[in-house]
Amino acid sequence: MMNLNGEHDRETELPIIAFDKVSKTYSTGTKAITNLSLKINKGEFVFIVGSSGSGKSTLIKLLLKEIEPSEGNIFVNGKELTRLRRSQIPKHRRGIGVVFQDFRLLKDRNVFENVAFAQRVIQEPIRSIKRKVPSILAEVGLSEKMQVLPKQLSGGEQQRVALARALVNNPVILLADEPTGNLDPKNSWEIMNLLEEVNKKGTTVVIVTHNREIVDAMQKRVITMNKGVLISDETKGGYSYEG
Ligand SMILES: Nc1ncnc2c1ncn2[C@@H]1O[C@H](COP(=O)(O)OP(=O)(O)OP(=O)(O)O)[C@@H](O)[C@H]1O
Ligand SMILES: [Mg+2]
């Protein structure tokens, strides 16, 4: 739903992601997240920023149900994650594409196979794989590199393969944990521009980043974490964390 300014109205819309009073204490005793409440609506583009150790990656892992909250509830697409049955977890994860700082490509598989792998896992028919993989690789500008191994690509190209792999199963949510952490400014902008295009087609995009220049320039929603606590949430924010 839009408000009169043509902006999404966070109060009335059904969130695709909701944290309700979530805390996470690791087994070591480290309190990574404290009493976090947060809603993200379908189709939003959100940056999560904050100093090292502020709980950003923990938040991503909670969303993927790689770890469990110590307190509170997390809802993704209307489903409360602690109540998902084991058999429902693969479907939950398929709805979320993920991109990491270190690309995490299969070293001994070419570009096509790295992207096709995500489709084989969900047992897509070969015919559909042969159609979808080249199409998504074209979207990220890698049509010419389908037969090449990851080590023969630049960092920016490797990240675009990772992005294609994250998108090939049409996720509703795309999570990126420092996707530009290993990239130079030009490649960083290329990845951000692709993420913005993905968002324009309707995917909810959540990006953890330390890239101040990009956050300040893009004028998106910015959530700032500090020592596990959400300290600011701005609709058209900047990178306000100092240090
Ligand atoms: N598996 C774990 N076991 C114990 N403590 C952990 C674990 N993972 C993270 N932590 C701790 O939890 C806190 C939050 O870590 P997290 O990785 O979420 O931070 P971050 O905001 O992603 O930091 P960075 O910007 O450096 O990636 C840190 O104090 C970290 O040391
Ligand atoms: Mg992190």
UniProtKB/TrEMBL annotation:
Organism from which the protein derives: Anaeromicropila herbilytica
GO cellular component annotations of the record: plasma membrane
Gene Ontology annotations of biological process type: cell division
Family indicated by similarity: Belongs to the ABC transporter superfamily.
MF terms (GO), sorted A to Z: ATP binding; ATP hydrolysis activity; transmembrane transporter activity
Intracellular or extracellular location(s): Cell membrane
PANTHER family (UniProt xref): CELL DIVISION ATP-BINDING PROTEIN FTSE (PTHR24220:SF470), IMPORT ATP-BINDING PROTEIN (PTHR24220)
Record protein name field: Cell division ATP-binding protein FtsE
Membrane topology reported for the UniProt record: Peripheral membrane protein
Residues in ABC transporter domain copies: 17-243
SMART domains (UniProt xref): AAA
Chief localization: membrane
InterPro entries reported in the protein's UniProt record: AAA+_ATPase, ABC_transporter-like_ATP-bd, ABC_transporter-like_CS, ABC_transpr_LolD-like, Cell_div_FtsE, P-loop_NTPase
NCBIfam families: FtsE
The entry's keywords: ATP-binding, Cell cycle, Cell division, Cell membrane, Membrane, Nucleotide-binding
Function: Part of the ABC transporter FtsEX involved in cellular division.
